[in-house]
Amino acid sequence: MSAMAAAIRPMTQRDVAPAAEALLRGQWGDRRAFFDFAVRHPECEPMVAEVGRTIAGTVVATRHGFTGWIGLVFVSEDQRRAGLGSALTKAALERLEQAACRTISLVATDMGRPIYERLGFEVVGRYIGLTRPGAPTDGDDDGATARAFHLRDLDAVCRLDAWATGEDRSHLLQAIALEGAGIVVDAASGSRRLRGGGPRIRGFSLPSGWGGWPTIATTPGDALLLLEGIRRTRGTDRALHNAVLEQNVPGRRLLLDAGWQETWRGVRMIRGEPLDWHPDAIYGQFNFGLG
């Protein structure tokens, strides 16, 4: 099979179940909830590669203002090494460049990295995946100052997120925000506000609805406070998975000392203009298709 034999087209609601099944067979986890979100969200463009009537590959292109992400570049095992992964990536690149995205990011596996390097992507960092089992929901908070997220916090959350990531992900944060769902850490009285005024916060973590918890914190201590709070929302039967960038040495050291364990590594790559970002403030992701 060559990439020319595969038809790449937009994913529809009807494709969500078979596409998710294809990724499950490929041991990429259960992506059904995310695909269901992506086909309905206006800034996401999920696509499938179809061979005959079978879904053989997927990709999701997402716009964050003038930046974009490419993720879930998946090819079924029996269709690999024929250029389909490259064709899917090029299709996503075309969509994002047509939308005037000046910087495009992705996370590469060892298998995918050579494809992306040939397409002009460069390494800007390495993610280190971490995990820790959930905690009892009635566990001691040790005097923690984190509190529940409220919708009135959303503007401040979006500003802090933009400062940390260099991207406008407000459309995603607005889409997942629910009153009382998530955790924030308030800034100290008298601390400097980010531009725009509103409530002062120095960290947040919100549930995505498909397993990811985008988490931003201005200090490692605040990050630990947020992540431990999330653990208590999950109970003892569900582990929490997150990732930090390799350059965030103090944050990674604090989490490892607190009992988190390293599980995997992946390469963050970009094509286009450099980001004005603060990678040491990033402690959790929507997923690695969105950032």
Concise account of the structure shown:
The protein is of the alpha+beta class and 291 residues long. The chain folds into two domains: 3-101, Aminopeptidase (3-Layer(aba) Sandwich); 129-284, Aminopeptidase (3-Layer(aba) Sandwich).
Q: Which band does the percent of strand residues land in?
A: 25-35%
CATH architecture of the largest domain: 3-Layer(aba) Sandwich
Rounded to an integer in angstroms, the radius of gyration calculated over CA atoms is 19 Å
Structural class: alpha+beta
CATH fold name of the largest domain, please?
Aminopeptidase
Number of helices: 8
CATH top level of the largest domain is: Alpha Beta
Biggest sheet: strands side by side, in what order?
Answer: 1-2-3-4-5-12-6-11
Order of helices and strands: EHHEEEHEHEEHHEEEHEHEE
Query: What's the rounded overall pLDDT mean?
Result: 91
* Global morphology: globular
Distance separating the two termini:
32 Å
The percent range for helix content is 25-40%
Give the total of beta strands. Answer: 13
Low-confidence stretches: 189-198
What is the total domain count?
2
Q: Summarize the main sheet.
A: 8 strands, mixed
Question: What can you see in these coordinates?
Answer:
With about 290 residues, the protein is α+β, with helices and mostly antiparallel strands. The chain has helices at about 15-25, 30-40, 85-100, 115-120, 155-165, 170-175, 220-235, 250-255; strands spanning about 5-10, 45-50, 55-65, 65-75, 105-110, 120-130, 145-150, 185, 200-205, 215, 240-245, 260-270, 280-285. Helix 1 (about 15-25) packs antiparallel against helix 2 (about 30-40) and helix 7 packs across helix 8. The longest helix has 15 residues, at about 85-100. It has two domains: about 5-100, Gcn5-related N-acetyltransferase (GNAT) (Aminopeptidase), CATH 3.40.630; about 130-285, Aminopeptidase (3-Layer(aba) Sandwich). The protein starts with 6 loop residues before the first strand and ends in a 7-residue tail after the last strand.
